[in-house]
Every structure is written in C-alpha cells, then in structure tokens.
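Q: Structure tokens for this one, please.
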Amino acid sequence: MVKTSKIVEESIPKVLKNLQIPNEPKWVALRFFINISLSVKGDFSFEESRDGSEYRLEQVVGKGKESEDFSKHYKKMLETFDEVEFETEKDFEISLEKHIQRGHFVISKSTKSDIFSFLQQEFSK
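A: Here is the predicted structure, written as tokens:
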C-alpha cells in the first residue's frame, strides 16, 4: 500500500483542476507528483504518511494492468534517482510515498497561481 498525507489528499482536486482535468482519477495527480519529484534535484526530508489515504500499486503505477502496467518503469526510475536497489515491494512503496510527498512539496512551493507557467519554466531548463 502507498500512503499519502492529508495535505496531499486535500491538494489533489486543486491540482487536477489546475491541470484542467478535474474529473480524472486521483492516481493521475499521484503520478504527476512522482514525475515532478523525479524532474528536480535536491534533498527532501521525508516523513511517513499516516493521516491521508492508501492506494494499491495497481492504482498508483498500474501494477498488473497489462498494457497500463508501468510499475517496472517507475521502479527503475526511482531506483536510478535514489541510487538504490529495492529489495522488497515495501521499499518500492515507501519510495513512491516519498516522491509523491516530494512532488507535492515542489508544486505547492513553486506555484502560486499558474501550474502551466511552472511547468514551462521547469522543463525549459
């Protein structure tokens, strides 16, 4: 299970609205946070989430969903980014939690009004 914090959960509808996809499932925002986290360098203080929601790997990375299963790709990206090799599925889940939290932090600190301006700045570097 991948856990999120209450703060992350409360921000998901706003992020989806800002991305102009308000009716998409929550996992879209979770993947967005993970991908944003992987796009920036720097350290981050991680605290395990206990007060939000729990998601199965099937929801977060599509594990077991045939053509929509991106779990191996995310696992490899996270291992490369964190310079680790996951020994257990729990290690992978904790890393996903960390990057969801980190991506949320980056977005919440970097965008005050326009998420598209942030993305344009971030990806034009």
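A few notes: The chain is about 60% helix and 5% strand. The beta strands are 2-3, 54-55.
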